[in-house]
Amino acid sequence: MAKKIIGVVLGLAAVGFLGFWLVYLPLLVVHAQRHPAETTPASMGVRYEDVAFPSKDSSLTIRGWWMPAENPRAVLVFVHGASGNRREIHSRGLELAKFLVSRHATVLTIDLRNHGTSDGTPNGRLSLGYGESNDVIGAVAYASSRAPQLPVYLMGSSMGGAAVVYAAAFHAPVKGLVLLDPVLDPHTTSINFVQAVLGAPRWFVVPIVWSAETFFSGDPGHHDPLATAETLKLPILLIQDDRDPVCRPSTAATLARANPNITLWISHDPPKQGDNVGWGYHTAAYVVNPTEVQAQLTQFLHVN
What we know:
By secondary structure, the protein is α/β, with parallel strands linked by helices. The chain has an eight-stranded mixed beta sheet with strand order 1-2-4-3-5-6-7-8, with helices on both faces. The radius of gyration is 20 Å and the shape is globular. It has one domain (2-32, 48-301): 3-Layer(aba) Sandwich (Rossmann fold). Helix content is 40%, strand content 16%. Helix 5 crosses helix 6 (202-215).
């Protein structure tokens, strides 16, 4: 009798562990986490407006900040990464926006669907840039309506990088793209992402990602941002942290070799203990090398 009870307990424990490992954790992975911005551009002395506009593909309302520059020469639409918000870039996004506005670039920062204060989809899942690209197209349409005489550029960080790639491929009328440690290989990036979040060994993480992609994916078509980016004909500035453990530099280098329209700039990040574990320097180029990033952006956007 005791052996039977032990067997039942062990069986239930195994089922519970498998449910946690292959259902609960994968569902957490694919769901966006909302973190509304806690400060506004006013905290940096930047004039702004709260704005809202429709996403291209649905009735979702996308919200953001419009930061007008004096005598503007371009508009930059900034697109954050997974579970980020409109003031992203390691919490220094507003600092970068202030710099760009001072250089005569109007800035529009947005909360993607399921993020910040923008509307959400019924399942709340991330599609690693593919579905979110419709929000970017909506932002471009809004920016063009506000400043029809100005060229519009897109800047995407991490998953936002994939979103702007897809938006450009879907013929959003933009002058160029800035990609900051973009998601180009969703499968490998997802593994690296989960490993960064959990701090777990790779053997534990791979089945979680497999389950997420197989049963709960927000992008059932498993689209390929790398292959898409290789086909783009417009100018692209690709900024890559050389110690990024999530979106690996080797993938960025592959894209730069495949597309002659790409200028690859490497942010040489300082050594850091535990650099290959956790987030490391993912999307940290502006934090680590702000002056160099500013120089790259002003040259690319033709603002000064």
